[in-house]
Amino acid sequence: MMDRCGRSWLGFALMITAITPITAMTNDAAVTVENAEHVKVFHEKGRFAGWPANNGIWQWGNEILVGFSLGFLAPPEQRGLHQIDPGRPQSLMLARSVDGGETWSLSEAGYPEGEPKPFPTDIAFDAPGFTLNARGGRAFISLDRGRTWQGPFRLPFADLHLRARTDYHVLGSKDLILFLTAQKTNDREGRPFCARTRTGGRYWNQLAWIGPEPPSGYSIMPSSTRMPNGDFLVALRRRDNDPVEHNFIELFRSRDGGLSWQWLANPVEDTGGYSGNPPAMVHLADGHLCITYANRNEPRTLRAVFSSNEGVTWGQEYVLRRGAGEPDIGYTRTVQRPDGKLVTIYYWLDEPRSERFITATIWSVPKIN
Q1: Which of 90, 91, 128, 225 is spaced 20 to 30 Å from 257 by Cα?
Q2: DSSP state of 213
Q3: 3-state secondary structure 63-97
Q4: How far is CA 272 from CA 40, 81, 100, 192, 277, in A?
């Protein structure tokens, strides 16, 4: 296939580009924990590739599919925090790895256009290739692991002015819970909630707000996990502007299938300036919870935190990568491979005023005290 500028994506293979230590940050010094491999998923001079957190990740064993946005770098005189050129073509891309993130192939996402249709009711959510992408108030569905897509379909509660990001759990053939963000009552972003259908999408007969409406700032971009006992945990990107900007990560828990939510912890008390960064949470095979995110403050790092007691308390921060050229980084998605290693995908830049690229860090869980 070709992009809008005539460049071919066929045969796009990627190599491990760097190995750096994972370091545990303490008040004294950084302690090397283990080596991390940084693999470039997409990198092209003059392009802006970003925001995997907005575009979805899906996994089938060692097969990983992740979405991202692709555009062009803005001219120097137009550059702000997000240095993407609004006057040139932008597209939604999918990157696929079948070897646990070691190499990647690229394609345009191919989401259908047009007016949203009613959500289909004849699809089994637990079908082997079922994949759902949520964008704004729309959903797209694939039955072949994201190779072809149907839609757009109207998401539930669209009158709440949704700012959806793909986050859902299949609970049965006709049972699915979806995590979304709505505008606040003042028409600004945002406030998270969950919606659930037990009728294959015919009726969405459950809506529950996750936490109170933030009086200032926002609570957005839910990243959820379902615990073995059936509890749901949701990590949220939180901003409080009263009295000054404070960016952090909040965690809520539901013990009744998403009907009600209780605050549990703040896994990260400070995600830095520039509006902070969203979390990506994963429940590990050994029982730990892991949240990855970026801190846009100097020295501009990719980080992780862990909990060994189902999210009640969280330990020290670990740095997976440091020294980005500018603050515009992060928006992670993270999965765990069958061999136990973690694959964290995000956007990054090495030098100031340079192209943003999509990269994957493949790393091992450190020994956690």
Answers
A1: 128
A2: P
A3: EEEEEEEEEEECCHHHCCCCCECCCCCCEEEEEEE
A4: 25, 14, 30, 21, 8
Burial class (CB in 10 A: 0-12, 13-18, 19+), 93: buried
Could you tell me which of 339, 321, 280 has the C-alpha nearest to residue 102?
A: 339
One-letter identity of residue 268 = V
The pLDDT tens digits along the chain (369 residues) read 333 333 334 333 344 445 545 444 433 233 334 789 999 999 999 999 999 999 999 999 999 999 999 999 998 777 677 889 999 999 999 999 999 999 999 999 999 999 999 999 999 999 999 999 998 889 999 999 999 999 999 998 888 889 889 999 999 999 999 999 999 999 998 999 999 999 999 999 888 999 999 999 999 999 999 999 999 999 999 999 989 999 999 999 999 999 999 999 999 999 999 889 999 999 999 999 999 999 999 999 999 999 999 999 999 899 999 999 999 999 999 999 999 999 999 999 999 989 999 999 999 998 876
Phi, psi of 243 (to 5 degrees): -90, -20
Rounded Cα gap, residues 222 and 27, in angstroms: 30
Which residue, 156, 125, 155, 154, is CA-closest to 142? Answer: 125
Q: How many CA atoms lie within 13 A of 75 on its CB side?
A: 4
| Degrees to nearest 5, angle at CA 365 with 252 and 351 | 90
Q: Specify the DSSP class assigned to residue 156.
A: T
User: Is the C-alpha dihedral spanning 162, 205, 57, 138 positive or negative?
Assistant: negative
H/E element, 59: strand 57-60
CA distance 159 to 92: 25
**Secondary structure of residue 193 in the 3-state scheme:** strand
Q: Strand (E) positions, 136-245?
A: 138-142, 150-154, 168-170, 176-183, 189-197, 206-209, 218-226, 232-240
